[in-house]
Amino acid sequence: MAGVVVKGRFPRRRVIQTVVANLVRYMFQGAARSWARNIGGTAPALGSMTLLLLMSGLVGLTGFALHNLADIEASQASLLHVYLRDQATPRDVMMLWNRLEADARVASVSYTTKDDALARAQRIPGLPQLADSTESNPFPASLDVHVKHIEDVEGIDSLARYDVAVDSSYPTSYDKGAYQRIQVVLFGAAVAGFAFLSLLGFIAVTVTMNSIKAAIHARRDEITIMQLVGAPRWMVRGPFVIEGAITGALAGLVAGLVTFGLAAAGSNAAPGTFTQFAPGVTISVAGLAALLVVAMGLALGSGSSLISLRRHMES
Amino acid sequence: MRPLVNVRPIVEFAGVSRSYGSRLALDDVNLTLLPGELTFLVGPSGAGKSTLLKLINREIRPTRGTVCVAGIPAHEIKASRVAELRRQVGVVFQDYKLLPRLTALENVAFGLQVGDLRISDEEARERSLDALEAVGLGERADAFPNQLSGGQQQRVAVARAVVAQPSLLIADEPTGNLDQDTAWELMDLFEDIAAWGTSVLVATHNVEIVTRLQRRVLTLVHGRLVRDQPAGQTGRMAWLASS
């Protein structure tokens, strides 16, 4: 064997391997075994957490849809349709157009013909039947005015609605207070959703803390021994945090899958209607929501365990 | 065995008091324990023996005074350093506190590895077997606690307490659940451990053991250290028998 260099294993790497193996055994495997043994005690926490996370997922998606709806509403509220008389002359229409365009509060003005108005109406649920019920086109041509600020819409409406080119029976699309009413409804829904989730969150955290307290009680001898032989504090507490995280992750997984499944089912069953009522909620958004629900479960489970440990375990 | 001038004490209490609310459990206690010393801590129930042991192991802090264990100031260290102190102290309980799902060998190895994650399985097995052989249980290493007698379980607990070679071993009523013969075997073991250089402090009510062994005896009454009798001068301790 002369001249042959035999490379030994790097001792430091062996120490790291040993530490990792011991960590896996005493923290992760220990936590998993304890979790499986205490499944009966963990079940209420698992149930309440799943319910909370499911509600969070659904409320989250609803909130996202409402937020998009509010954006759409805001952009529609700043768009004023000025409906033109069928008999209006091109000169009258041009004069009105120029007057509107010259106003500093207006961002832009565009013209929609009767045919374009009909085509647009046919894309709105319920209106195609109305459009098809008469032989003539019932939808008027319009000047579509983008106002810079929502609060100026009323002024532009006053400027346009009495013009000779404008339909006197239904002059504009302006609905005073409609945007504010939607804002109030959305704010109310957000407050109610937040209060509901807070209550569910409180229940889930309390139940989880109690289940961890039971787990601590079941393993009190093991904890005492670990503390007395000089195990570091994080190692004594770690398995319980992991137990909580397992509960949270499992609850999050179930809730995430149900959230995703419901959104995907709704989107597949009636894509048009779903998009109308839940704008922006696509399959990828639902998938992201499901992932967030799982992450929230992990945080909720391990966080509740930490709070419980601080309360019930001797430092 | 009296303190030697140049030997560094393992335990030093200086003016230590500890109260629980308005009740004073320990009152102005001063003492030192030296390496290789087997010391008995005696006193009636409620005298403060368990409080004194808990102060050594930093399960509680003193209300007043200083406690040093193996050079570590137990009275002022942060919670993050408690583990470091406890690796210097082995503890034996009256009720053994063995984990029922683990064998004798695994119980000892568990104590070794959770205290120091760098110890590999092979090393833990080897050292645990050595410790079990030292307490006379090498043959029963694979037995579960419920397959062992009370005395054997207590010896496993001693093996677990000394396997990491602590500077100090404290035992709280270790013979409380044992018959007299088994208690004597355990005391022989403590004498051997002290002979290896570990300081051993045993809180006990067992008068016969204390009087026959003639080791140093610390007597606590109402939280005060009323007597510190050197080895060979403990007398018959008649008061303890009647307490």
Can you describe what's shown?
The complex is a heterodimer of chains A (about 325) and B (about 240). In chain A, helix 2 (about 40-75) packs across helix 9 (about 235-270), helix 2 (about 40-75) packs across helix 11 and helix 9 (about 235-270) packs antiparallel against helix 11 (about 285-310). With about 325 residues, chain A is mainly alpha-helical. Chain A folds into two domains: about 30-70 and about 180-310, no CATH class; about 85-165, Alpha-Beta Plaits. Chain A contains eleven helices and three strands, in the order H-H-E-H-E-H-H-E-H-H-H-H-H-H. Chain A has helices at about 10-35, 40-75, 90-100, 115-120, 125-135, 155-160, 180-220, 220-230, 235-270, 270-275, 285-310, and strands at about 80-85, 105-110, 140-145. Helices cover about 70% and strands about 5% of the residues of chain A. The model of chain A has no long low-confidence stretch (mean pLDDT about 85). A three-stranded antiparallel β-sheet of chain A has the order 1-3-2. By secondary structure, chain B is of the alpha/beta class. Chain B has two domains: about 1-90 and about 170-245, P-loop containing nucleotide triphosphate hydrolases (Rossmann fold, 3-Layer(aba) Sandwich); about 100-165, no CATH class. In chain B, about 35% of the residues lie in helices and about 25% in strands. Chain B contains eight helices and ten strands. In chain B, the strands form two sheets. In chain B, strands 6-7-8-3-9-10 form a six-stranded mixed β-sheet, sandwiched between helices. Chain B has a four-stranded antiparallel β-sheet with strand order 2-1-4-5, covered by helices on one side. In chain B, strand 4 and strand 5 form a beta hairpin. In chain B, helix 3 (about 105-115) crosses helix 4 (about 120-135), helix 3 (about 105-115) packs parallel to helix 5 (about 150-160) and helix 4 (about 120-135) packs across helix 5. The longest helix of chain B has 16 residues, at about 180-195. Chain B is globular, with a radius of gyration of 18 Å. Chain B starts with 10 loop residues before the first strand and ends with a helix. The model of chain B has no long low-confidence stretch (mean pLDDT about 90). Classes of the chains: A mainly alpha (about 325), B alpha/beta (about 240). The interface of A and B includes residues 19, 222, 225 and 233 of A.
